[in-house]
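Hi Y.,

Following your request, here is the sequence exactly as I used it, all 245 residues.
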Amino acid sequence: MWKNDEDTFCKKLRKTTKEIHTLSDTLVNAKLAFGFFDDSVWADGLLVFYEIFRYLEGAMVRLKNTKIGLFPLDRLERTKAFERDLDFYLGKGWMKHYSPRESVVKYLMHLREIEDTDPMLLMAYIYHLYMGLLSGGIILRKKRQLMQKIFPFKEIQTHGSNITTFENNSIFELKKTIRDTMNRIAETLDEDTKNKLIEESRIVFALNNEIIKSVHGTGRVIFKKVLCFSIALVSVIFAVFLFFK
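Below is the corresponding structure, written out as tokens. Let me know if you'd prefer a different format.
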């Protein structure tokens, strides 16, 4: 039994993945920050994670009679929320011309292999991805909304945030439920399985990094920002020139 909060399995997961977790957070923030200014970048960020969440939710249904079934899918389910957001940003016909990119396919193949050989390891993905969405995902949404308010040339976006909207569910309570579920399951596992979950957690962040690197459009946003800054700078210089002429 885990004696106190300092000894919980989730605490151990956090400590042992801290370095790669921090790297992953930095990469996500650096990439999706461009989505504060360009909806297409934000939509592409959603798109790379859509298939991963959809697979995990399908696996939770397929494995509902195992320990994985203890996670509250009815309160966490995000597949339809992703699809509503992607409908909003890409248009309702986006699925007709869509196929997962190479990094996403590689990720899905790894998840399928785990489900076939050692399905308990899927808990590492369930835990980290949903906790990430409930923490960093919501922070990114709030930052994006704030930037849209203060950026004078950007229309404020009031739709397209279904994936971080959990209706009447408390975010705090959902995160607590996920942690408690993971810790409770870990108490029933042998040391070998727990060590495998810790190692798989590192792979979670490595695979997340690969798909987030593939997000399109960030170069275009940099060009637009530099162009806007240049125009603003020239305007200021011209105004100063006229003032002192």
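The CA atoms of residues 29 and 140 lie 8 Å apart.

Thanks again,
Q.
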